[in-house]
């Protein structure tokens, strides 16, 4: 993983069906340390297809601002949503780099 080349330690956060595959803000905040620099979001996710809802996306952006974190948003499956529309974090903060498009050439 690229993070290891940068001497970064990735911390994964699992999504659970009992939370409708939504990240819980309090759980994410508990994982943040003084060394945390980046919050990577993957929505819609692969292989689950889970979409982070608009409210949670806004709260994640607020959390990143509060802790002075970068957000990298992987949005390559944004066109493949059904029940919940995709909301980019860039909607709430124009400084968020997104990655729309296709994952394969």
Description:
This protein is an alpha/beta fold and 105 residues long. It has a single domain (25-100), classed as Aspartate Aminotransferase, domain 2 (3-Layer(aba) Sandwich), CATH 3.40.640. The chain has helices at residues 2-5, 25-31, 54-66; strands at 38-42, 70-75, 98-100. A three-stranded parallel beta sheet has the order 1-2-3, with helices on one face. The longest helix is centred in the middle third of the chain and has 13 residues, at 54-66. Mean pLDDT is 83; it is low at 101-105.
Q: Any key phrases for this structure?
A:
single chain, 105 residues, alpha/beta, Aspartate Aminotransferase, domain 2, three-stranded parallel sheet, disordered C terminus
List SSEs in N-to-C order. Answer: HHEHEE
Main sheet characteristics: 3 strands, parallel
Structural class designation: alpha/beta
Which fold does the CATH topology refer to? Answer: Aspartate Aminotransferase, domain 2
Average residue-wise pLDDT:
83
Beginning-to-end CA distance, first to last residue: 20 Å
Q: Helical percent range?
A: 10-25%
Count the E strands.
3
Question: What is the radius of gyration computed over CA atoms, rounded to a whole number of angstroms?
Answer: 13 Å
User: Based on CA inertia axes, which overall geometry fits?
Assistant: globular
| CATH superfamily caption | Type I PLP-dependent aspartate aminotransferase-like (Major domain)
Unreliable stretches: 101-105
What strand order characterises the main sheet? Answer: 1-2-3
Strand content: 5-15%
Can you tell me the CATH class?
Alpha Beta
Q: What's the domain count?
A: 1
Tally of individual helices: 3
Gross CATH architecture: 3-Layer(aba) Sandwich
